[in-house]
Amino acid sequence: MEKQIAHTNLPEISQKESQDLNLDYSLAGYDYTLPNELIAQNPVFPRDSSRLLVVNSSTTGQESAPIHQIFRDLPELLRAGDLLIMNDTKVIPARLYGRKSTGAEIEVLLLEERQLNCWLALVKPGKRFKPGTQIIFASRGLKNRHQTDSLPLATELTATVLETDAATGGRLLRFDVPSGKALVDMLDQFGEIPLPPYITASTAADEQYQTVYAQNPGAIAAPTAGLHFTPELLDKLRDRGINQALITLHVGVGTFRPVEIEEVTNHQMHEEWISVPPATVAQIRATKAAGGRIIAVGTTAVRALEGAAKSGDLQPFCGKTDLFIYPGYQWRVVDGLITNFHLPRSSLLMLVSALIGRERLLNIYQEAIASKYRFYSFGDAMLILQ
Prior knowledge:
alpha+beta, 9-stranded mixed β-sheet, 6-stranded antiparallel beta barrel, 9 helices, 20 strands, globular
């Protein structure tokens, strides 16, 4: 029998209750079942040979049927004068393996630096992980260490639990690093790139979980819609008059944590750090003035742009956003979206539903499943246009 991921642990409700339930705002409305075989374990090569499902974003009943393309067809699917907004965050080696002084093994996923060398982290197993607990991490060596490097490598790294974080269930860890150094400079030696838990049999190299334009370290997961681009495809888009601009959103727990509240409007997104620079804002304004479209590459680019326009007007912004987008959202900046296929019950699925309509999106997902599209981080993509 085919193995499946099923999300059906929902309370039984009567037919009348089901009819009265507004599924756009209920967690039950964002369930679907995916065969395990469609969870991509490795990226395709070359990157732009992934499949691309093209749909329009109208929710007025004028929708056309989805079109099956290849990602490298993107220059023919966009128009001269359109502007692609890409997230240039870079994934850090945020997963560390250590042990307590008792010898018990510990897995740590760094989330964000709160103070110098003090990081909020998820720990596993987390029970009895009290303040004062010490963790010892052994060096894993450096993959890219040059033979001419003469400085000796530290063999161990230690951290102490300072407190528990109620919002994430994580711990605040203080790392003891050599004077004048920062933990982020040592992660290549002690950490590894954290692939999502549903990727269990991957042979991908670390650089395959980075976009080709990644440049600002700070993410703990890749902005996966951008993984499909190659330098050659970016050049072809420029040659066609399809412009490109950058924002930064350091992907964190806010992006990948599942929604767990049945009434989704009560879900509280965790904050993530964003930067929408003045040059990008100027490009967006010029593009709209000339009749071009703003195409976000990934849900993280959407959250950065719409978060920077939360007051009603897009402005340069550097700080944190907890913007949660779901059906009924009034769009301020984004006209189109390139995105991968997302997990059931996720805030990302709700964001895309706000652009295309929940019921229609789930129908399109069923078509993608029937057509054997590859899902999630290393999977295929959708292009949603007006």
